[in-house]
Structure formats: C-alpha cells, structure tokens
Fold this sequence. Notes:
Elements: H1 6-13, H2 27-38, H3 47-58, E1 63-65, H4 75-87, E2 94-96, H5 98-101, H6 103-106, H7 120-135, H8 140-157
Parallel strand pairs: 1-2
Amino acid sequence: MIGAPTEVIAFFKQLTRARIIELTFDEESELLSREYIKEQIVGLKSLVDCQHIATATVNNIDILVSWNFKHIVNLDKIRLYNAVNLKKGYKPIEIRTPREIFKRDIKMKTNIKTEKTFDAVKMMRDIRNKIDKELEGMTSEQVLKYYEDRRRRIRESKK
C-alpha cells in the first residue's frame, strides 16, 4: 500500500478478513514467474512482480489489483504476461488498479453509499465462463488464433 492515496488505504483497512483471499506462492507459481523473466517481459529485478502475477494466475484469480504501473498494471506487459499464460496452458488474467475495481467504494470521503447497479466481477466471470466454453479442447495455437481473430473483428467493428 506504499504510495496509495489515503482513502484507498482506509478502504483496505476496513475490509473484513472474510473478503481477503490469501494465496500461497508454490513451485508452480515460481516456474511461471521464471517463464515471464525468461520471455523478457521484465528483468530479474522485477521477479517479485512476476511472482505476484504468477501466483494469481496459478490460483485462477479473476482479477489482480495492483498500484504497480511500471511492471504490472501496464497494458503492454499485461498482454505479454497473458501470452505466456496461454502458452503455458493458463487462462489470461485481468490486471486492474484499485480505482478501477473499487471506484464506488473508494469515494468514502462523501460517506454516501450508492446501490450497486453494475457488478463488474460478475460480468468478468460470465465473460470468462463463455470464453472458457469456446476455448474448451483447443490447442495453444488455436487459442492464440482465437484471440487474434477476436482482436481483428473488434478493430474492424471500430472502423
């Protein structure tokens, strides 16, 4: 939480233990983190960042939340981490900032709670489940082609 805004620190301090998931860094996570380094996504000095991402990936976490914009919450790096994840048989991981995930809750300065009208986590899980069904039984190469085709269709639809 070093460098996080005061309201974010306050938000996380008030979370109950029941809402916090503790993960164990294991050998599988270590191997995946070393793969990120091997693929030169970041240098060896950023091994701890890679371990953070690998642990979340191996434990099938939907969304990893971080303030680290240099090595973790960085679109170019996220794409590279996910390319390695796919190559190694893992699902892509969503990586976001606390502000993106806890937008409504972080506005605690006002002490006004609004009713939840949109559940981003549920939406992400629904999308991930749909994609999982579409990817079921595909090889790594087929999965990569699937994502390339999706990106191409999205780009074409924006024209």
